[in-house]
Design brief:
Strand content: 5-15%
Structural class: alpha+beta
Organism: Brevibacillus brevis (Bacillus brevis)
Largest sheet: 5 strands, mixed
Keywords: 2Fe-2S, Iron, Iron-sulfur, Metal-binding, Oxidoreductase
CATH architecture of the largest domain: Orthogonal Bundle
InterPro entries: 2Fe-2S-bd, 2Fe-2S-bd_dom_sf, 2Fe-2S_ferredoxin-like_sf, 2Fe-2S_ferredoxin-type, Beta-grasp_dom_sf, Diverse_Oxidoreductases
Helix content: 25-40%
CATH class of the largest domain: Mainly Alpha
Protein name: (2Fe-2S)-binding protein
Number of strands: 5
Order of helices and strands: EEHEEEHHHH
Number of domains: 2
Pfam families: Fer2 (PF00111), Fer2_2 (PF01799)
Bound molecules: FE2/S2 (inorganic) cluster
Number of helices: 5
């Protein structure tokens, strides 16, 4: 039997990645098995857990609900693209400082979903954060520390934005 494949080009975490993939390959498996980006987890086969959440063209997407071929030409960010130990993304800083995880299995997906939420709503209420968490399941934390982590991340993002604005204003005044 001849296996039909399709050539795809996807920008993943800022780098152009190209591959020949079967049309039925899920984006989650492309990231994990082809690109070896195993930070994207797979926790269910019912599209419910959210552990596989990544950003596709700036939108949080469950990567087990999308085919790799549908990501052809897109920009994908996985948890590996958020930040590094010496330069953490505010959401990572928030989880670190507010103890937003226990086993950590859900954490990559939760963080990517919350990056999507904070992009749309930089100052979410606790209720809005809990609403945003509806698509992601955590079996360990009881969610309270996750909520605190997201609130802290939102504060860090707002403070960084204010500092940037103040510096821009100071530059204009010179
Ligand atoms: S693996 Fe559970 S929603 Fe994708
Ligand atoms: S920290 Fe264990 S599932 Fe969320």
């Amino acid at each position: 039997m001849v296996t039909v494949t399709k050539h795809i080009s996807v920008t993943v975490n800022g780098a152009l990645r190209q591959a020949e993939v079967e049309p039925r390959l899920l984006l989650a498996h492309f990231l994990r098995d082809v690109l070896d980006l195993t930070g994207t987890h797979i926790g269910c086969d019912t599209s419910q857990c959210g552990a596989c959440t990544v950003m596709v063209n700036g939108e949080a997407v469950k990567s087990c609900t999308m085919l790799a071929v549908q990501a052809d030409g897109a920009a994908v960010t996985t948890v590996e693209g958020l930040g590094q130990m010496d330069a953490m993304h505010p959401i990572q800083q928030g989880f670190w400082e507010k103890h937003g995880l226990q086993c950590g299995f859900c954490t990559p997906g939760v963080m990517m979903a919350m990056v999507g939420l904070l992009k749309e709503n930089p100052d979410p209420s606790e209720e809005e954060i809990r609403d945003g968490l509806e698509g992601v399941i955590c079996r360990c934390t009881g969610y309270q520390f996750i909520v605190s982590a997201v609130q802290h991340a939102a504060k860090l993002i707002r403070e960084a934005e204010e500092t940037k604005q103040a510096m821009a204003n100071a530059g204009e005044g010179r």
